[in-house]
């Protein structure tokens, strides 16, 4: 199948999945997805937790049968020609799907056999993967002695054993340290650049989508709400800047927001959000030392129920230009601005624009 | 098929990576087999529980005497009352005279397994080639013969065979010149073997145990009994394995690979079956080390082991479709094993329990395995003596497997 000069590798049409919970309630996890993934691209599904990313991946890998709709991989239907489709496919699940008491090599060998590899071909492939994930030295060690990042790398390696044309990676950076995350992102880039593989990558982190993807599908409540290149998506929000003012535990009067909106040219919206400090269970009455998220990084004592990390978010056509005026008004109203952040439009902004919610929770 | 083997090999590898497997596979079963074996008579003597039979020999012929002697020889566990009562009140008659009424009472209350009545004229009729019958009264259900009835049937067939031979001899004497002695013998032999061949295959009653001076010991019960119990534990654990593989996502990962679900499930079942057979191997190896006697038909024993391990694995698969969590699986495994083992005669021979319990016990596959093991080990049976229980076990396997597969979910 051709689309311009691009060749469609994964074709998804009207894919739906409904779960019936034990208490009788019905969960529409995926509500009808249409999608084409082109050969050689990194396509990312970006969406918050519970958006339906894993469910979609499960259906596209033949693990769950769709309630409705159809998908094809390299022309093979995932429902009626599952075995052929699976041969083209490597899956890296969100979970660490490994035998914890076996060594890295034993895991790779076993899963290699499941992909139909044998003998010297299997041994060669296992060695290549061990090199690729940089775990040659630790190949004889049990998985349960590995760090989270190392487990993640083996988890990825398993999906590459049979040199598939297409890999699914479901949130492969969840729960790893920043260094390991960098490594994993580099791995994805190498798969695309060196091996010319097609990658379907899911994440709830817009930075990852923005860095890796040729194209992004933003998924929310089981539906793709926007699809295109990063540039295309950002254009949708009209390329507004986002200004974030940290106000700490100060109360922000509505009048301040109102003045922002009316008195400063180019401002399209202004809102205030804060999180309440909730102490660890059992320590409700004690005060606690916390580190402020933004601004100075200084430590302060806060108490249960106290508002902290208050933020005023302002959308503006030209953020930097509006800044002095905004600061002056805040000063007049007696609100101390602890720090300011100016964000160029990004996928986070796109999501916010489309849903009115932030990506992370 | 390749992948099925790989799944099985990998499962066994994972099983043996866990060091506690040796506790479960060797140490605990051996300790239990040892102590229960000791309690049942240990190394020496005849560890078989005594089975009392009340006998009324109204015939008092040479043939009836022979039959009773054969019965004693065939099964050392049988005590024929009142004649074998002796000083130690082995018949539990407490000095009373045995009447048919009393005998009926004794069967009912479980003091005896059965009453055997050899009517007058039995020997004469048998020798004349006429239908000769004796009466066996018990509370056994047909089709689930006790050891006593098994022994009796075997002995009757043999005595009957001898009677046929004698009768053929008498008949041929009348039709032949007695001078031709060699010819006479030959004719008797030919005619007898022809008749023998036309009889249904008899239970081959091996007396080699007695001849070699080897007798079942306490371990001859505890090794197959406790062994079978641990084989059950090692196989029904398949329900736990499926939950674990789901939880650690290896099950789901394999389903995203070009592997048919039956290859994965089949491999897991094969691994459990192999584990079960290894467990039997360990149990019987212990038995041989302590010099226990296990009958003369290793083939029959292996048939029983295979049938039981299959049946128990299928049971595990069925439970795999019912339990949801590892905790549930753990409790169910304990419960199933701890109910099925005593019920099925793994801890003590079912001969000593009340009739109703023995009947109920046969819902436990262990009971069928133990029937089969005991007929080989204690009653000298061969392959044919285990055919019925093996077929029952395989039948159970098929039923359990079909139900389990129809309920099994891959999602
Ligand atoms: N097996 C299931 N049964 C019931 N609900 C489910 C099941 N799997 C997922 N869900 C629900 O479907 C929605 C989508 O879940 P998921 O695909 O895991 O989201 P994501 O991967 O984007 O975080 C969630 O609301 C989740 O609770
Ligand atoms: Mg997910």
Q: What would you note in describing this structure?
A:
The complex is a heterodimer of chains A (361) and B (411). By secondary structure, chain A is an alpha+beta fold. In chain A, 31% of the residues lie in helices and 31% in strands. Chain A is built from eleven helices and 17 strands. Chain A has helices at 53-60, 82-87, 104-114, 119-132, 148-158, 178-193, 206-212, 230-236, 254-263, 319-332, 347-355; strands spanning 2-3, 6-20, 26-38, 42-46, 68-73, 76-77, 89-92, 166-170, 198-203, 215-220, 223-228, 241-248, 267-276, 288-291, 299-302, 307-316, 339-343. In chain A, the strands form four sheets. Chain A has a six-stranded mixed beta sheet with strand order 7-8-9-4-10-11, sandwiched between helices. In chain A, strands 1, 2, 3, 5 and 6 form a five-stranded antiparallel beta sheet that branches. Residues 291-298 of chain A have low confidence and may be disordered. The longest helix of chain B is centred in the last third of the chain and has 29 residues, at 261-289. In chain B, 64% of the residues lie in helices and 5% in strands. With 411 residues, chain B is mainly α. Mean pLDDT of chain B is 80; it is low at 172-178 and 196-213. Chain B has a four-stranded mixed beta sheet, sandwiched between helices. In chain B, helix 2 packs across helix 12, helix 10 (238-247) crosses helix 13 (298-320) and helix 10 runs antiparallel to helix 14. Chain B has helices at 2-17, 21-39, 62-74, 100-108, 122-127, 147-174, 181-198, 208-211, 218-236, 238-247, 250-255, 261-289, 298-320, 326-343, 355-361, 365-377, 383-407, and strands at 51-57, 78-81, 114-118, 135-138. The chains are: A alpha+beta (361), B mainly alpha (411). At the A-B interface, helix 2 and helix 3 of A face helix 1 and helix 11 of B. The complex binds adenosine-5'-diphosphate (ADP) and magnesium ion.
């Amino acid at each position: 199948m051709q689309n311009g000069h691009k060749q469609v590798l994964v074709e998804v049409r009207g894919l739906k999945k409904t779960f019936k919970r034990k208490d009788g309630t019905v969960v529409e996890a995926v509500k009808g997805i249409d999608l084409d993934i082109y050969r050689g691209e990194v396509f990312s599904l970006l969406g918050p937790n519970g958006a339906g990313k894993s469910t979609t991946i499960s259906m596209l890998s033949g693990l769950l049968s769709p309630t409705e709709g159809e998908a094809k991989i390299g022309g093979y239907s995932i429902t009626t020609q599952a075995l052929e489709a699976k041969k083209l496919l490597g899956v890296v699940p969100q979970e660490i799907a490994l035998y914890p008491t076996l060594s890295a090599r034993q895991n790779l060998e076993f899963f290699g056999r499941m992909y139909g590899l044998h003998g010297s071909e299997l041994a060669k492939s296992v060695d290549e993967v061990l090199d690729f994930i940089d775990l040659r030295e630790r190949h004889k060690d049990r998985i349960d002695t590995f760090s989270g990042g190392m487990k993640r790398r083996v988890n990825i390696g398993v999906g590459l054993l049979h040199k598939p044309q297409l890999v699914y990676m479901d949130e492969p950076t969840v729960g790893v340290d920043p260094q390991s995350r960098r490594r994993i992102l580099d791995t994805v880039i190498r798969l695309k650049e060196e091996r010319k593989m097609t990658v379907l990558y899911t994440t709830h982190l817009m930075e990852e989508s923005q860095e890796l993807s040729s194209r992004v599908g933003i998924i929310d409540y089981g539906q793709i709400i926007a699809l295109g290149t990063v540039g295309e998506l950002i254009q949708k929000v009209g390329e507004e800047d986002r200004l974030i003012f940290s106000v700490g535990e100060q109360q922000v009067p509505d009048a301040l927001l109102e003045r922002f909106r009316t008195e400063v040219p180019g401002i399209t919206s202004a809102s205030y959000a804060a999180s309440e400090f909730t102490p660890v269970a059992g320590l409700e009455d004690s005060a606690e030392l916390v580190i402020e998220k933004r601004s100075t990084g200084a430590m302060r004592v806060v108490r249960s129920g106290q508002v902290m990390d208050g933020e005023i978010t302002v959308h503006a056509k030209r953020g930097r230009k509006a800044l002095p005026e905004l600061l002056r008004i805040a000063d007049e109203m007696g609100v101390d601005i602890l720090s300011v952040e100016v964000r160029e439009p990004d996928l986070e902004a796109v999501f916010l624009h489309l849903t009115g919610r932030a990506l992370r929770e | 098929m390749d992948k099925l083997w790989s799944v099985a090999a990998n499962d066994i590898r994972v099983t043996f990576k866990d060091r506690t497997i040796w506790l479960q596979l060797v140490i605990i079963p051996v300790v239990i087999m040892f102590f229960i074996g000791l309690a049942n008579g240990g190394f020496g003597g005849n560890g078989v529980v005594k089975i009392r039979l009340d006998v009324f020999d109204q015939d008092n012929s040479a043939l009836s005497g022979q039959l009773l002697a054969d019965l004693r020889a065939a099964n050392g566990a049988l005590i024929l009352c009142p004649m074998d009562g002796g000083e130690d009140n082995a018949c539990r008659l407490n000095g009373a005279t045995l009447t048919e009424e009393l005998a009926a009472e004794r069967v009912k209350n479980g003091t005896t397994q059965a009453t055997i009545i050899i009517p007058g004229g039995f020997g004469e009729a048998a020798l004349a080639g006429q239908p000769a019958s004796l009466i066996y009264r018990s509370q056994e259900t047909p089709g689930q013969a006790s050891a006593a009835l098994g022994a009796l049937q075997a002995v009757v067939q043999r005595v009957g065979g001898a009677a046929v031979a004698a009768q053929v001899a008498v008949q041929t004497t009348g039709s032949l010149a007695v001078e031709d002695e060699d010819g006479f013998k030959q004719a008797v032999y030919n005619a007898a073997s022809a008749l023998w061949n036309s009889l249904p295959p008899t239970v081959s009653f091996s007396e080699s145990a007695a001849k070699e001076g080897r007798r079942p010991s306490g371990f001859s019960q505890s090794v197959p009994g406790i062994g079978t119990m641990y084989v059950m534990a090692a196989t029904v654990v398949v329900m736990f394995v499926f939950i674990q593989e789901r939880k650690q996502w290896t099950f789901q990962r394999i389903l995203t690979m070009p592997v048919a679900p039956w290859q994965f499930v089949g491999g897991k079942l094969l691994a459990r079956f192999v584990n079960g057979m290894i467990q039997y191997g360990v149990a019987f190896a212990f038995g041989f080390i302590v010099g226990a006697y296990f009958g003369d038909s290793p083939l029959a024993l292996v048939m029983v082991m295979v049938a039981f391990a299959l049946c128990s694995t299928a049971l595990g698969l069925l439970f795999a479709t019912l339990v949801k969590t590892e905790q549930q699986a753990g409790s169910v495994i304990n419960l199933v094993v701890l109910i099925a083992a005593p019920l099925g005669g793994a801890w003590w021979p079912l001969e000593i329990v009340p009739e109703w319990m023995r009947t109920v016990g046969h819902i436990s596959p262990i009971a069928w395995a133990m029937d089969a093991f005991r007929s080989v080990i204690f009653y000298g049976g061969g392959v044919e003596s285990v055919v019925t229980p093996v077929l029952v076990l395989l039948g159970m396997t098929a039923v359990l497997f079909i139900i389990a597969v129809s309920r099994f979910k891959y999602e």
